[in-house]
């Protein structure tokens, strides 16, 4: 059987696409994407010492496979995510647990401020959802300690009792703006503590503070992409695919339509005219907060744009306002 599948894989096209591995019952075991379908699928049926134990178990269960050809690698990435969420194959881990994604709430009651990791969003001061949900506990711990928010931490409050406590309005402003506009204030406070520790020759403490500062920078940089995407309504994305151009109409980070055209078409029409050609009859509703099953598509799209310098992203909001 594996020999037959190997021969079938050799005949696959060299185009981008998605492949679906199936068992004897026709159930989908695994969904993957490929820049070149024939090379990627064939790799499963060639002996390779670098195959993980998980991959080997998968290969033993493969009875057949199917493919879907697409125009570009980005199309393959987006379709892969859509199909994984639809079929939830047992061998797919990424994008298969979106129901476990979490939200981060800054709860403000009177002058008390507390941080909470939630499975469902609240209407106010709630951010996310975050696919890196395991990192949220670390984020909460860093911010709790930095702003002395954990009222039950007797040791910490006793240790820091001689330090001047920040006003709740200052803490509220810094935390909300860190999530909304990435104001860098928490990182600045950690940097100040790090410099003080180094000056006191507490180098181990300074090293820990540096790690926390770097963690916050990575988190809030990623969070800012979600925020900006949510605020930008209409965008036009295009990049070369061989001798042609693939362009996409985006609304709040979601692909509404796309088309593969000649370079001459892109040169001939304005961004607004190109967008009009893809405009759906029914306009999409505005998204106030991304749902758990939506955020993976946003991360995939903008990670792809950031990694590929040939991508061109044009803000269309001025044309539609």
From TrEMBL:
One of the Pfam families matching this protein, by short name: GIY-YIG
Annotated keywords: Cytoplasm, DNA damage, DNA excision, DNA repair, Excision nuclease
MF terms in GO: nuclease activity
Occurrences of domain GIY-YIG (ranges): 14-93
Recorded GO CC terms: excinuclease repair complex
Keyword hit for Cytoplasm: yes
Biological process, per Gene Ontology: nucleotide-excision repair
rRNA processing as UniProt keyword: no
Transmembrane region(s): none
Protein known as: GIY-YIG domain-containing protein
Taxonomic lineage from the root: Bacteria, Bacillati, Bacillota, Bacilli, Lactobacillales
């Amino acid at each position: 059987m594996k020999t037959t599948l190997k021969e079938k894989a050799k005949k696959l096209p060299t185009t981008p696409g998605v492949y679906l591995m199936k068992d004897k019952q026709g159930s989908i075991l695994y969904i993957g994407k490929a820049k070149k379908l024939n090379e990627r699928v064939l790799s499963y049926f060639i002996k390779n010492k670098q195959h993980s134990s998980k991959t080997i178990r998968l290969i033993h269960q493969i009875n057949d496979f199917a493919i879907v050809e697409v125009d570009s690698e980005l199309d393959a990435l987006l379709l892969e995510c859509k199909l994984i969420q639809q079929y939830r194959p047992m061998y797919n881990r990424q994008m298969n647990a979106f129901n476990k994604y979490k939200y981060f709430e800054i709860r403000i009651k009177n002058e008390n401020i507390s941080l909470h990791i939630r499975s469902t969003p609240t209407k106010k001061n709630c951010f996310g959802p975050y696919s890196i949900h395991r990192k949220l506990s670390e984020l909460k711990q860093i911010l709790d300690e930095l702003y002395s928010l954990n009222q039950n931490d007797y040791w910490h409050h006793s240790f820091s009792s001689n330090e001047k406590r920040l006003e709740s309005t200052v803490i509220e402003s810094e935390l909300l703006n860190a999530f909304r506009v990435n104001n860098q204030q928490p990182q600045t406070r950690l940097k100040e503590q790090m410099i003080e520790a180094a000056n006191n020759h507490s180098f181990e403490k300074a090293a820990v503070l540096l790690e926390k500062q770097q963690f916050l920078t990575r988190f809030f940089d990623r969070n800012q992409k979600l925020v900006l995407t949510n605020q930008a309504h209409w965008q036009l994305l295009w990049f070369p695919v061989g001798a042609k151009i693939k362009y996409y109409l985006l609304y709040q980070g979601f692909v509404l339509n796309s088309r593969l055209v000649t370079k001459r078409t892109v040169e001939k029409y304005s961004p607004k005219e190109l967008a009009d050609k893809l405009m759906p009859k029914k306009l999409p509703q505005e998204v106030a907060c991304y749902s758990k099953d939506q955020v993976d598509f946003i991360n995939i799209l903008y990670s792809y744009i950031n990694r590929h310098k040939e991508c061109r992203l044009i803000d269309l909001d001025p044309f539609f306002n």
